[in-house]
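Archive entry: two folds, one per protein. Generate the first.
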Amino acid sequence: MWIPRTLEASLRQLAATRPVVVLTGARQTGKTSTLRRLFPDHDFVSLDLPSEAEQAEKEPALFLQRHPPPVILDEVQYAPALFRHLKSVVDGQRDRTGQFLLTGSQKFTLMRGVSESLAGRAAILELAPLAFAEVRAARPRTPLLDFIVRGGMPELHARKDLDAVSFHNSYLATYLERDVRTRANVGSLRDFERFLRACALRSANLLNRADLARDVGIAPSTANQWLSILEASGQVTLLEPWFSNRTKSIVKSPKLYLTDTGLLCALLNIRDTASLLTAPSVGAVWETFVLAQLRHRERAAGRARSLFFWRDRTREVDFLAEAAGNIELFEAKWTELPDAADLVNLRFAREALGRTKVRSAAVVCRAPNGFPLEDGCRAVPVEELV
């Protein structure tokens, strides 16, 4: 079963107007399947195949003769030398659009090649795991908690017979072998997996790199390198604090989140909805889920780098969205019925930021329907975020 993605229209539009389109995102988010479905007349070659990657890297001109445009080049970060030759081909036929559709699951490596050789020639989109709204559109009866535990990898929703625990265990093993070994010189994959599990335990918390390194038993410099690997491969998200002149005591450390709640639950040994309901970390899992849905909303609206968190020395609001000078505040609460205690931080932040700047303040909760709360705040189910 195919689950349509929100960005499909944007992909088609960009391919019709730009010579190169780059689609980034973690492994298994559906980059290759989406491009092949939308552009069936394009040739396809995967640089996951060592023979293809080697020729693309060592003999890029010959490689492009074998695979002329229009073509989909999958996992193109494995051949950095190819980017300069792509530039030459594109510049020779600049009026042709949709020549090269590129995918990559190592964002930093990919973007370095794009920025150095294809600046001004390439449009860039990110394909994240499925949002709850995308699954609900295709499968209206999908339970919310089931989605949180299974996560947003498309195959888990296209094939409901797949066991989510086995899928994520295999995903983790494959990720460590295929991406980590090629991204950096990691001495021990076992230590790296422990590091990933330690990150899962800290999801939705302020990042303290020194504590994280100490708990895993690695050097702080190693922890920084490994965090970069996780971020580059789309496994974690670092949410930055929002700054303004009126809130001078805001912290500078980001908050750490795993990108997909399915992998988060697997790492926390939450195997089903019953386990989720009794898990001590259920609040952090919910906050991680809400961030993923807000990021989907912002991407769908064409807004980049618009999400933050707000914090001073005594109070914190989970999420702050800013667009054109207008601010929206969101608190993520596991409850089905928010009360006045859930509004304390929202009210405090609204006063600190200025009521004229704050367009709305909401508690994102498990309520079946939205309803007004005190002082102009609102309880919002996840479905209303989109």
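Generate the second and append.
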Amino acid sequence: MNLAVACVPFTLLLVYALRVPMAMGQAKLEGGYDNSTPRVAQQRLTGLALRAKGAHENGFEAFMAFAAAIALAQGVGISSSPLVVGLALTHLVARIAYVAAYLADARTVRSIVWTVGFAATLGIFGQALAHAA
């Protein structure tokens, strides 16, 4: 199994796992969970549910770049290289830490691990571009 490629669905699952605390927060709102206009209800979230929403949205932003980097690495034939696998695992671990820090409202830690994950994604792009040159 290619570990770098396997990190892609796990990263996406992490994004969607955040829907659980969001839905729990929405259920506590006046009128309960509103499946007709859930995005309107999300604007009223507070506390943990609101932080889960922020982490969820940031997860999509980070996922797009990461998935593109892995696809490029796969396309040039280096997705199973030890460096790319290490960078992909670093990204995944950083995203897990990011979510935990976001939910805990640990702002400084959140910024640090976001930077680590983004740097890992950039590293994958750099490796793929260097290999393609």
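Annotation attached to the second fold: Helices lie at 3-17, 19-27, 38-42, 47-75, 82-103, 107-132. The CA atoms of residues 7 and 81 lie 14 Å apart.
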